[in-house]
From TrEMBL:
Name of the molecule in the record: Uncharacterized protein
Region (Disordered): 1-98
Highest taxon in the source lineage: Bacteria
Keywords associated with the record: Membrane, Transmembrane, Transmembrane helix
Species this protein is from: Micromonospora globispora
Length: 291
């Protein structure tokens, strides 16, 4: 009797009993054919086994992890559901406006003032070299400083306002390095809506009126001051103007002065220019010193 061939199916498909055990994991279907030439070729999986199945079960098994991933994707969906309820988002959204109160607006005004003052001061000191020495002797003796009290008001001790004043001074010193002195600070009691801010720099100015024009023009934009009116500058001389402004619904009174030796401004929050103007000359005299 002749011996059966060692490979009983040389040109055909493997026997049916090898199908379930012969197929490897879905990611490597080729090697299951035990080294047949069709294994490295990708078309082999299309007819591997019986044509009726076409690995139909196995592709669905490959999709099973994807469906599993779908279930996994449903798990992240639950947090989105919670987010839609608004519980995590709603709670932090409410408090910030209450905590800020008017402080955030005050700090924005401070920034606007620093920008105006620094730009004006830088231009002023640049042209100072063109003046004759005799014309600027008195101006060189002018200094500005933040007094211990301003119009009877103590310095504000609030940490944020104190930090803002420090930053204001740092910016002025950086942007106007030739200034002979700078002054900045807050006075009063914000809780009682009695708050005054000062910002000033000293240095020889070639054109005080021109600098005053520039400062008031910029402040008209930054603080929505519709009109600056000329006011009495007081015994220190120079020129001064005051106007009513508003910053984010906070009323402010603004007075600016300029002379040969300094440029400065005083701003009252929550009050009108009429309130500020009655104190302007006194407060300027507490900030600016000559000789």
């Amino acid at each position: 009797m002749s011996q059966p061939p060692s490979n009983p199916y040389p040109g055909s498909y493997p026997p049916p009993q090898q199908q379930p055990g012969g197929y490897p994991p879905p990611q490597q279907p080729g090697p299951q054919y035990g080294g047949y030439p069709s294994a490295p070729q990708q078309p082999s999986p299309q007819y591997g086994g019986q044509p009726g199945q076409q690995y139909g079960g196995y592709p669905t098994e490959q999709q099973a992890p994807q469906y599993g991933g779908g279930y996994g994707s449903e798990q992240p969906a639950s947090p989105y559901g919670y987010l839609e309820t608004g519980q995590p988002q709603g709670s932090p959204a409410g408090p910030p406006p209450k905590k800020k109160s008017n402080l955030g607006r005050i700090l924005l005004i401070t920034l606007a003032v620093v920008v105006v003052l620094c730009l004006g001061g830088a231009a002023v000191l640049w042209f100072a070299a063109k003046d004759e020495v005799g014309d600027v002797v008195d101006a060189t003796k002018t200094r500005v400083a933040a007094p211990a009290t301003l119009g009877g008001r103590a310095k504000v001790t609030d940490a944020e306002l104190t930090s803002a004043a420090d930053e204001m001074l740092a910016e002025m010193k950086k942007d106007v390095p030739d200034a002979t002195s700078t002054a900045g600070g807050f006075y009063g009691n914000p809780a009682k809506k009695d708050l005054v801010m000062i910002a000033a720099a000293s240095g020889v100015m070639a054109n005080p009126k021109g600098e005053l024009d520039t400062a008031t023009k910029d402040l008209s934009t930054e603080l929505a001051v519709k009109e600056f009116k000329t006011v009495e500058p007081g015994p220190l001389g120079g020129d001064a103007r005051c106007g009513d402004g508003k910053a984010d619904d906070v009323p402010v009174g603004v007075c600016v002065w300029a002379d040969r030796g300094s440029l400065g401004m005083i701003i009252t929050y929550f009050k009108s220019t009429a309130d500020l103007q009655s104190e302007f000359v006194t407060m300027r005299g507490e900030i600016e010193q000559k000789g």
